[in-house]
Amino acid sequence: MGNLITPLDVVNQSFKRGLRGYDVEEVDDFLDQVAESLQAYIQRNNELERELENLKEQAEEFKSLKESLNETLLLAQKSAEERVKTANEQAEERVRAAMEQADAILREAKLKADRIVGDAEVEAAALRRELNRLTQMRCQCVAEFRAMLSKFDMMIREEAPVSGEPQAGTVQQGWQTQTIQQPDPVQQWEAQTVKGNDPTPQTPPQPQQPEQQIRIETPKHDVYDPPKALDPQELAQLVSRKSYSGSGKGGPNPISLSVEEPTLKITSDLG
Predict the structure, then answer these.
(1) Pairing mode, strands 264-265 and 227-229
(2) Which of 174, 204, 199, 179 is CA-nearest to residue 189?
């Protein structure tokens, strides 16, 4: 590109004069206007160039900022991806740990349940054995008690006086009660005196204490509960002493033997 015309070149430009040429003053005025316009264009161009430089600098700054933003975005994206990856790994680890803990809890619960079931089975077997033992003991006690009652009844029958008068006996609903009474000697003597069976006067015997009464009560049914208060030794001692016969200075001592439900026991009332 050639040299540009400056306003100073326009002002200093000179032309040759010739015949019938342009008016010098008009030409000078026009050149002055052209120089001014050119100067204005030059100033405007310089301003635009400065603005362009500023814009270029701003563009460079924006470019740098863009690159920085891109780098920041990349870093943020990378950091986000790493965080997401870390979060996923942590979540998977927690889920795995929770599953392992749940499996351990289930195994422990199963072991406890098996142990409880095993203990319950052992305890149930022990209870069954104890029930069988108690059942056998109950049957044995009932058999011994029945044998004892039978023996005691036989002894009472052997010790009871033989008399022509019928012995009093009663039967109650639900229980069997046998009452053995001894005759009153005073009543026998009066009866014989009135009838004249004995002509020889005799001193009437002294009235005795109320007649001895021995009562044996047993339930009609054959179902008994295991005895809770049964002392065979005491009963054997009572039988061996013959406390039921009414012998002794103190007069007859009533003895009461009874069987009560739901427990099976022997009670004795000794005066």
Answers:
(1) parallel
(2) 204
- Residue ranges of alpha helices (H) inside 160-218 are 185-195
Return phi, psi of residue 102, to 5°: -65, -40
- pLDDT tens for each residue of 226-264: 444 445 555 555 545 544 444 444 444 444 444 444 444
Which is more confident, 169 or 190?
190
CA–CA gap between residue 14 and residue 111 (Å, rounded): 121
Residue 36: CA atoms inside 13 Å, Cβ hemisphere, count? 6
Contact 178, 215 (CB under 8 A): yes
Q: Where are the domains of the chain?
A: 7-71, 167-192+211-271
What's the DSSP call for residue 130? Answer: H
Q: Coil, strand, or helix at residue 170?
A: strand
What does the pLDDT look like over 160-172, one tens digit per residue? 655 544 444 433 3
d(CA 30, CA 131): 143
Query: Measuring CA to CA, which residue among 179, 154, 151, 177 is closest to residue 166?
Result: 179
CA distance 41 to 45: 6
Full 3-state SS string of 231-247: CHHHHHHHHHHCHHHCC
Give 58-100 pLDDT, tens digit per residue.
889 888 888 888 999 999 999 999 999 999 999 999 999 999 9
- Please tell me the distance from the alpha carbon of residue 60 to that of residue 216, in angstroms, as a whole number: 129
